[in-house]
Specification:
binds S-adenosylmethionine, Rossmann fold, three-stranded antiparallel sheet, 198 residues, globular
Length: 198
């Protein structure tokens, strides 16, 4: 597992001024720390709109990354037959108070191959992990995840990910990252939501 992910899993988590914050080391000797803003309640309205667009009522949902649970709470409001969450941070897993969900405490890197072994498939997959140090770690997140998507998605299933504040050239690469599926876009205010249909 990447050091940055290992360190993150051991980090302190708090909610401060509407932000979900992780305190993570920024030097090898671990004497200096910085606060990473993982998620914010300021994104609540956008996250709810995303869920409304990509979640099929009475379908099955896989969400990768619980955060503040905003997406997942909206999934519950929409109403689905199965709702699975993969979340790697123990303190964030503890924060989840949703009853009707299968909460898998793991990194997606460890658990997604097991879902595939179990032949699990989903109508919607939402991928919103924190990318750590930004686009330089992108390869280890979205690029690797996409190699599993065909096996995880039902026919006509939807896969999407959160690209808010990503540099334009990354968005360009992301747009061609799942060529075997049909890319659709939808504006949510200034934000362009990308999603693919199998
Ligand atoms: C931006 S937050 C998700 C926000 C969420 N969509 C919401 O609506 O509140 C990212 C989450 O992904 C989790 N995460 C990051 N890397 C992960 C990984 N490799 N496997 C599983 N969860 C991961 C983090 O612990 C964090 O809870």
């Amino acid at each position: 597992m990447r050091t940055v992910l290992k360190d993150f899993i051991k980090s302190d988590i708090s909610i401060e001024n509407k932000y979900l914050v992780a305190k993570t080391p920024i030097n090898l000797s671990r004497t200096k720390y910085q606060n990473y803003h993982l998620m914010s309640y300021h994104e609540e309205d956008m996250m709810n709109q995303i869920a409304d667009i990509i979640v099929k009522p009475n379908g099955s949902v896989l969400n990768v990354g619980y955060g503040l649970g905003i997406f997942d709470k909206q999934v519950q409001k929409i109403g689905v037959l199965s709702h699975t969450i993969i979340e790697c941070h123990p303190k964030i897993v503890e924060m989840c108070d949703l009853e009707d969900v299968e909460m898998i405490h793991s990194t997606w890197q460890d658990y997604v191959p097991k879902l595939i072994e179990q032949k699990r498939k989903f109508d919607t997959i939402w991928f919103d992990t924190f990318l750590f140090n930004g686009p330089c770690c992108f390869k280890y997140e979205w690029d690797d995840f996409t190699s599993y998507v065909d096996d995880l998605l039902e026919v006509n299933g939807i896969i999407s990910m959160f690209t808010n504040k990503f540099p334009k050239h990354f968005i360009k690469n992301i747009k061609t990252s799942l060529d075997m599926f049909k890319l659709q876009t939808q504006m949510i205010d200034e934000y362009e939501l990308l999603f693919w249909i199998k």
